[in-house]
Amino acid sequence: MDDYLERLKNGSLKLYALEKELPPAEAVTLRRRYIEDITGTPLPSIGSSTLPFDAAARKNCENMIGMVQVPVGVAGPLHIRGEYAAGEYYLPLATTEGALVASVNRGCSAISRAGGAETRIFQDAMTRAPVFATDSVVHAKVVADWIAANNEAIREAAESTTSHGRLTGVMTSVAGTSLYVRLAFDSKDAMGMNMVTIASERVSALIMERTGARLVALSSNLCTDKKPAAVNVVLGRGRTVAAGVFLPDALIHDVLKTSATALAEVNQRKNLVGSARAGSLGFNAHAANVIAAVFIACGQDPAHVVEGSSCITTVDLADGGVYVAVTLPALPAGTVGGGTGLPTQSECLRLLGVSGGGDPPGSHARAFAEIVAAGVLAGELSLVSALAAGHLARAHKELGRGQR
């Protein structure tokens, strides 16, 4: 090991190249030792983990030096009445924010006592949008017309690259000589970005061959991936999912310590009008909090919390109570691929009964999306209620455990 360490220090061996000469676990250990030496910072906790370094270094992380561990709590039981998720669930939440798990847990209690959250998937549409350069606006129109007339050829090209994915939509958009093609796929149980990127590359080659348009970039930002975007709110991306529950007045009073009218007013003035005044693309209290915690626990790409945070929370007054719902237009999520195969993340997915591929294909990812939506609903109910009752600061003082 000392020989390798000396080569790293004199520059004859690059940090990223260690796996070419050593088994992954040894490469991770040596890289961490090098970082410790040159920074003077011991890293014993980062180097201690139950996760196997070999698999993670091969599939999930480059220049790996160890693991960061995040506390995981559970909220529940959460009763869900969905098309794909049905029953009681304990929601794993990986977070360092004191009060979050307790807050979601209170929302779960309210939902379960009300008979459970209704959940539905409205769309599966993982997207990739290549951008092409054309010679003129006339050429751009020719290319757009060819795409519109040849959807079947485009579908065959896309689906020739995958045994699982299915092309479900093609949309073109033009800005001068730039032509954008937003391709939508049903990616089954995978989140699907790798799948749709490979398929989009094949489609792009076909478009160039048949139209003379020139591919500039395989991703044009019209996808839109990991950035807040109105196109995702309007058209959806990943799983488009909603969850709702009717809460009777007595339950609102007993569990949430507020009233239906107070819930509706806080939601209107904070989540709807306040968000509009801020120019936000999310009209909710803290949907990203719950999505991030579940995503980290369950091996999802945390950057996709950006799309998930475009959630819209609605509160409708009704006879004898109130109907509260959350709609998540863009929730990229999957139960196979990415970080879902790591042991601790896989355990969290197994806790929810959705680890791996479903039967039929896609059913696990859709169930997972319904569970996430129900968890977001629980979080929204609890926070909006705390605001309505004036309890928010008190909860953070009791559970936040910050420095005083």
How would you characterize the overall build of this protein?
By secondary structure, the protein is α+β, with helices and mostly antiparallel strands. Helices cover 44% and strands 22% of the residues. The protein has 15 helices and ten strands. The chain has helices spanning 2-10, 24-39, 53-59, 100-113, 137-149, 151-159, 193-211, 230-235, 249-255, 260-278, 287-297, 305-308, 343-351, 363-389, 392-399; strands at residues 72-82, 86-94, 117-128, 131-133, 166-175, 178-186, 214-217, 237-248, 312-318, 321-331. Strands 1, 2, 3, 4, 5, 6, 7, 8, 9 and 10 form a ten-stranded mixed β-sheet that branches. A hairpin with a 2-residue loop joins strand 9 and strand 10. The model has no long low-confidence stretch (mean pLDDT 94).
Q: Count the strands? A: 10
| Overall average residue pLDDT | 94
Shape by Cα distribution: globular
Tell me the major beta sheet. 10 strands, mixed
**Helix-strand string:** HHHEEHEEHHEEHEHEHHHHEEHHH
Strand content: 15-25%
CATH class categorisation of the largest domain:
Alpha Beta
Q: By helix and strand content, what is the structural category? A: alpha+beta
Give the distance, in angstroms, between the N- and C-terminal Cα atoms.
46 Å
Q: Radius of gyration in whole Å, from Cα?
A: 24 Å
Residues in helices, as a percent range: 40-55%
The total of helices stands at 15
CATH homologous superfamily placement of the largest domain? 3-hydroxy-3-methylglutaryl-coenzyme A Reductase, Chain A, domain 2
CATH architecture of the largest domain: Alpha-Beta Complex
CATH topology of the largest domain: 3-hydroxy-3-methylglutaryl-coenzyme A Reductase, Chain A, domain 2
The low-confidence parts are none
> What is the total number of structural domains?
3
